[in-house]
Design a protein that fits this description.
Layout lengths: L1 H18 L8 E3 L3 H25 L1 H4 L9 H26 L7 H8 L1 H5 L15 H26 L1 H4 L1 H32 L3 H4 L4 E3 H7 L1 H8 L3 H14 L6
Antiparallel strand pairs: 1-2
């Protein structure tokens, strides 16, 4: 099964790399290829389309100004489940793309035990065994996986209605659907903050596909060591000394 997933993912990467291009300049590392970036933005697009149409449907007294964007309330109701299905579909492809690096490991448990220090910025660098993704990113990933399962099940029940599944199932589905949306939206807000202000340079990884070596050794030192063969702490100290002395940085 894993081999089939790897073959599919590799074929998709090659196909999209032949269409798009990722420029990696000196002092940078390839973070996300074209295929990964396309999936990421497709997931983001359909998440917010589903979110905005959902707001207009479930809270019209508060978000009625959303529905005219989609052609009015009735059309928003029609579009919402299709946006939701598209979101789940593209995230499923994203899940296959990221399944291996998102597997939980001992380094992630250690990261969680030190989350206060990490979140408080007491350390200049992330823990040295932080790989391609840290524990916080993995938690959000698996939360979205669970959320997609809830969306799919409850969404089908709501789509088919009480005549098919009964009034009780529909009522419960409304609650679970909304709770899942609120939890996921909270995680998205954190994700947007960290990818822009919280961890400068992260946004470029999903637009250009490349990150600076400084970003890599700061936020994902184990990944930096894996792809460069260099010690992240030594690279950081060297860069700091060069900055203090005013000498130009060399790779």
């Amino acid at each position: 099964m894993g081999t089939a997933i790897d073959r599919f993912d590799e074929k998709a990467r090659r196909t999209f790399d032949s269409i798009g291009r990722t420029e990696v300049y000196r002092g940078e590392l390839l973070r996300h290829p074209v295929y990964t970036r396309v999936l990421h933005w497709a997931v983001a697009l359909f998440f917010f389309l589903a979110l905005f149409t959902g707001f207009g449907i479930y809270l019209p007294w508060l978000f009625r100004w959303f529905t005219p964007i989609f052609g009015g309330g009735p059309l928003s109701r029609i579009l919402h489940p299709y946006f939701g299905v598209a979101f789940v579909f593209f995230f499923f492809l994203q899940m296959l793309n990221w399944l291996t690096p998102m597997i939980w490991c001992d380094a992630d448990s250690k990261w969680m035990r030190n989350i206060r220090k990490i979140a408080g910025g007491q350390e200049k660098l992330e823990p040295p065994d932080t790989g391609f993704f840290n524990a916080g990113q993995k938690l959000q990933f698996w939360e979205i996986v669970g959320g997609c399962v809830v969306y799919l099940i409850t969404g089908i029940i709501l789509w088919m209605g009480a005549r098919t599944f009964g009034a009780m199932a529909v009522a419960v589905s409304y609650v679970l659907h909304d709770i899942s949306a609120i939890i996921m939206l909270g995680g998205i807000f954190i994700h947007i903050y960290l990818s822009t202000i919280g961890e400068p340079g992260t946004f470029h990884s999903m637009t250009r596909g490349a990150v600076s070596e400084a970003w890599a050794w700061t936020f994902h030192p184990a990944w930096f060591k894996k792809v460069t063969g260099r010690d992240p702490r030594e690279a950081y100290e060297k860069a700091r000394r060069e900055q203090d002395s005013g000498s130009p940085k060399t790779s």
